[in-house]
Specification:
By secondary structure, this protein is of the alpha/beta class. It contains 10 helices and 11 strands.
Length: 308
């Protein structure tokens, strides 16, 4: 199989137009059309539907698109690995990070460690939602991701790395019961205006499950997907939030906020996800080991802070 045709096919699907893909690839449009005709003949299937607005893949084309991404990534990994046999590891490695999670605290240490140990590895870090990261791993566009383990996902293997407790962060004077620093029950948070991520986010789901279990309703007054915006909103008294301890600590930079534990505790598990049906390249394996070590260091340091 001519991998150049697969590469061209993927670019056409991504661009949604043979004309735009030809410009991107610096290939004459008739030559690119001939490549697609040859590819369709090879598979005995129509792969693209052509219309005035551009092109879109058929069902067969979508199936080929998924496989082509995996094949092209494996070819790229093979080229990178073979080219550095006997030399230092090199090549691109992509790592996904779930937003509003502990893993954001280890992104910089990970990047630093990879740069120090493997300067020829190009590390690509992508912060995105779990569903997006899982789909990227399944289609071969991402090597690994740290994300909330929401259960079995076809094509992704989960390795639990840490469990973190969720905390309430609220502006002072919000009316939290008890004394400053004491734990609160979900039932005591009835009516508390909450700023939370959207309904598809794991944190939102576990918080609402805790409210449901307490026969209460979460009073969500805003949905915020950005940690930076969430911090500003809470600091400005627009509402309280419930976040993992590591993220909550990042918000606690002013004196007018309260940080409270919830009883019974609400926890989330962060796992390392990797594609099930495709092996990692040597550079990706090296990054995975560094990632495990960085997370282990973070867990030890967090335990030390908690003990103090």
């Amino acid at each position: 199989m001519d991998t150049r045709r697969l590469f061209s096919f993927v670019r056409i699907v991504d661009a949604g137009s043979i004309t735009r893909a030809a410009d991107i690839l610096h290939i004459a449009q008739p030559a690119l059309s001939q490549q697609m005709t040859a590819l369709e003949a090879q598979f005995g299937q129509q792969l693209l539907i052509r219309h005035k607005q551009g092109v879109e893949p058929t069902d067969a084309g979508r199936a080929l698109y998924r496989h082509a991404q995996i094949i092209l990534r494996q070819v790229q990994s093979a080229q990178a690995e073979v080219s550095v046999v006997g030399r230092e590891l090199a090549g691109g490695v992509s790592v996904g990070l779930a937003p509003y999670s502990t893993v954001n605290a280890i992104a910089l240490p990970l990047l630093t460690a990879v740069r120090e140990r493997y300067p020829s590895i190009l590390l690509h870090i992508n912060e995105n939602f779990g569903g997006v990261l899982s789909e990227a791993m399944m289609t071969g566009r991402m090597d690994m991701a740290l994300l909330y383990d929401t259960g079995p996902i076809k094509g992704v293997t989960f390795e639990p790395l840490l469990t973190e407790e969720l905390m309430v962060v609220a502006p002072a004077g919000t009316g939290l019961p008890g004394t400053t620093g004491s734990a609160v029950a979900i039932a005591q948070l009835k009516g508390l205006p909450l700023l939370l991520p959207g309904p598809m986010h794991t944190i939102r789901k576990v918080v609402e499950q805790a409210y449901d279990h307490a026969l209460e309703h979460a009073h969500v007054v805003g949905e915020v997907e950005s940690v930076a915006l969430m911090a500003q909103a809470v600091r400005n008294g627009l509402g309280a939030t419930v976040l993992p301890l590591s993220v909550a600590r990042r918000i606690m930079t002013v004196d007018n906020l309260e940080l409270r534990r919830i009883e019974p505790a609400i926890t989330v598990q962060v796992s390392l996800g990797t594609p099930t049906n495709q092996p990692l390249s040597k550079p990706a394996e090296a990054v995975r080991e560094i990632l495990r070590a960085v997370v282990a260091d973070y867990v030890r340091n967090s335990a030390g802070r908690t003990a103090q």
